[in-house]
Amino acid sequence: MEKRKLIFATNNAHKLSEVKNVEGLNFEILSLKDVGFEGEIPEDFNTLKENAMQKARFIHEKLGLDCFADDTGLEIDALAGRPGVMSARYAGPQCNSEDNIRKVLDELKGKIIRKGRFRTVIALIMNGQEHYFEGVVQGEILSEKRGEDGFGYDPIFLPACFTHTFAQMDLALKNKISHRAKATGKLIEFLQQK
């Protein structure tokens, strides 16, 4: 039986790889590149949930196909929840992951309590209905980078009850415990009932 197609509304190859590597999905996950979409997707809201749905609606309206989108943020208690929804562009619009990490570490200098969490919200539009799935992983922010893999803030995020950062972790393990894995797991559970 041919798998149903579902677009993941992202241009981020790392995110796409993480979702495509999740087993047990009876849908073919297509990237924006797979469907020939190369434009920018707006993210104009102040919450992860609103941004995720804005991206899903944008692609759904453009292409008329079932799709999902996510938004992820690193929320640090000592920074009043920042960078949060601004995580990808925390150091400015032209910044990269190194710039963002540097800014977070600078702001945390001298802070003893460095607890935080990664939060992912996935917004799905399927058969004309909207659904949300959320995943959270608690941890702490290290004072220096550890590890070469992963992306974003992975080198400074130590998940609770683990001794390795996301950037030091085997991808298979990260895909079992990460915020995105948890949200994706809920999405997959939902899709498997369809």
What's the short version?
Helix content is 29%, strand content 25%.
Q: What report would you give on this structure?
A:
This protein is 29% helix and 25% strand. The chain is α/β, with parallel strands linked by helices. The chain has one domain (4-192): Maf protein. Strand 3 and strand 4 form a beta hairpin. The longest helix is centred in the N-terminal third of the chain and has 16 residues, at 48-63. The chain is globular, with a radius of gyration of 17 Å. The mean pLDDT is 90.
Give the helix/strand class.
alpha/beta
Instruction: Please work out how many helical segments DSSP would assign.
Output: 5
At CATH level 3, the topology is Maf protein
Element string (H = helix, E = strand): EHEHEEHEEEHH
Note the topology.
Elements: E1 4-8, H1 13-20, E2 27-30, H2 48-63, E3 67-76, E4 83-84, H3 97-107, E5 115-126, E6 129-141, E7 157-159, H4 171-177, H5 179-192
Parallel strand pairs: 1-2, 1-3
Antiparallel strand pairs: 3-4, 3-5, 5-6, 6-7
Helix pairs in contact: 4-5
Key features of this structure:
seven-stranded mixed β-sheet, single chain, Maf protein, alpha/beta, 194 residues, 7 strands, 29% helix, 5 helices
